[in-house]
Write a structure and sequence with these properties.
The protein has 7 helices and 31 strands. It has about 475 residues and is mostly beta strands. It binds CU-O-CU linkage (C2O) and copper (II) ion.
């Protein structure tokens, strides 16, 4: 029976693998029986993504859930997770933002052999830093993540700041057909060369969510995670004044963003302290206003009849810094990385009256001819296993000067390290924050700095997963 279900679940996906393969796959339950200890099993499942008035959606999920199980550890603990593959294709798990040893980084071909269907892999490493992280495959991520393979990894401080509730909101974005199944149009060349595969259905913790119950006077720690493949969010907490206490898991000097607006590129996180300052029995709308003219209501905070306390506590203490060494900018080595490619990018460079020729030539030089290829320093990646773009001396401070010479936004993620955002367009970055993923506007230049203290072969790539798939990916070797 399970086998039959597996086949029909897969049928909804149009993933392109031979249908007969599914018949020989072990089921999720069978894998669970043979794997000891903490495990995550990636397999097909059905979940009520779009809500009760729609059919369930066939997804790929960890342990049958979207998001996958919320993994919580204490800072300094050791993570041990066995990942079993019940999918019809290879997979891996990448622990996004965690400073892991290279062999645990989950990059297929580069740091491990991919986990074949029906087999498993043991991930085991120490958790040096507290913060909000997440996990997802690094194999075909433009399909696997978009089909539901992602989950939160929360590493708690040894003395977490007191709050009434500590809540994760994983933001997801799906392209659903009218029957609530996932559209199978992955890797569309036109979209790849533009903003990526932006969907039509936004979920919070794997459900289209209308309301979120709160109590007057309550203090929340809200951990936002953008798990979307391409969608950028700008959440406006209109009647509230959230305080940002961490970005990408890394503590930041707490600040209240202008207009209560939190911008999150794909893969980015923000930890907020949110004081529920409304009155009992009221509602307050959170709007996502990132794309002009396409604002929509994400959900309403709905106040219950009871008041928890008269006013929020005012004893908030900033989070202690994590364990990264501070990069010394005066002695840092500098490296340039130019982001290129995509539709219309060359034309932008040529100015408003440009003929478009630079764009065409740029595309032709990289084999596309249509601007649907993305590059770092002129090279488009075709897989994970490649010669390093940069070799960084271990233990030394380095500055990467990222220059976005395209017409599109890019969230650039570096593995194995956290970095400080130093400047934007030559001006000191306002929060000087630590991050693992930095969002660049079209034509923006951003400098980041870090000590290359983690030896190995590390990916740097755009986290618009279609851009990554289209070539915006490289290896940085630290030795
Ligand atoms: Cu979240 Cu290389 O990825
Ligand atoms: Cu990109």
């Amino acid at each position: 029976m399970d086998h039959v279900q597996t086949i029909s679940r897969r049928g909804a996906f149009a993933v392109g693998a031979a249908a007969t393969l599914a018949a020989s796959l072990p089921t999720r339950r069978a894998l669970a029986d043979v794997l000891p200890g903490r495990r995550l099993i990636a397999a097909a499942a059905r979940v009520p993504l779009a809500g009760a008035s729609y059919a369930e959606t066939g997804v790929w999920a960890y342990d049958g859930m979207v998001p996958g199980p919320e993994l919580r550890f204490r800072q300094g603990e050791r993570l041990r997770v066995t990942v079993g593959n019940g999918l019809p294709e290879d997979t891996t798990v990448h622990w996004h933002g965690v400073r892991v040893p290279n062999a645990m980084d989950g990059v297929p071909e580069l740091t491990q052999a991919p986990i074949a269907p029906g087999s498993c892999f043991d991930y085991e490493f120490d958790l040096p830093d507290a913060g909000t992280y997440w996990y997802h495959p690094h194999q075909h991520s433009f399909e696997q993540v978009a089909c539901g393979l992602y989950g939160a990894l929360v590493i708690e401080e040894s003395h977490p700041p007191p709050v009434d509730r500590d809540v994760v909101w994983m933001l997801g974005d799906w392209r659903l057909l009218p029957d609530a199944s996932i559209a199978g149009d992955f890797g569309n060349r036109m979209e790849t060369g533009m903003a990526g595969r932006i969907g039509n259905t936004v979920t919070v913790n794997g459900r289209v969510t209308d309301t979120f119950p709160v109590r007057a006077g309550e203090r929340l720690r809200l951990r936002l995670v953008n798990a979307a493949s391409a969608r950028i969010f700008a959440l406006e907490f209109r009647d509230h004044r959230p305080s940002v206490i961490a970005l990408d898991g890394q503590p930041v000097v707490p600040y209240e963003p202008e207009g209560g607006r939190i911008v999150l590129g794909p893969a980015q996180r923000a930890d907020l302290v949110l004081d529920l300052a409304g009155v009992p029995d009221s509602r307050s709308t959170i709007v996502d206003s990132f794309y002009q003219g396409l604002e929509y209501r994400l959900l309403d905070l709905v106040y219950g009849a009871e008041r928890l306390r008269d006013r929020a506590p005012d004893d908030f203490v900033a989070l202690p810094l994590n364990t990264m060494p501070e990069p010394d900018l005066a002695t840092a080595e500098r490296h340039k990385i130019i982001l290129g490619g995509g539709m219309m990018s060359g034309m932008m460079g040529a100015g408003a009256s440009g003929s478009g020729m630079p764009g065409m030539m740029d595309g032709m030089a990289h084999g596309g001819g249509t601007g649907m290829v993305w590059t770092f320093n002129g090279v488009a990646a075709t897989g994970h296993d490649m010669a390093p773009m940069l070799e960084l001396a271990r233990g030394r401070p380095h500055v990467l000067a990222l220059s976005n010479e395209t017409a599109w936004w890019h969230p650039i993620h570096l593995h194995g390290h956290a970095f400080r955002v130093i400047t934007r367009n030559s001006v000191p970055a306002p929060y000087h924050e630590w991050r693992d993923t930095v969002l660049l506007r079209p034509q923006e230049r951003v400098e980041i700095a870090f000590v290359a203290d983690n030896p190995g072969q590390w990916m740097i790539h755009c986290h618009v997963l279609d851009h990554q798939n289209g070539g915006m990916m490289a290896v940085i070797a630290v030795a």
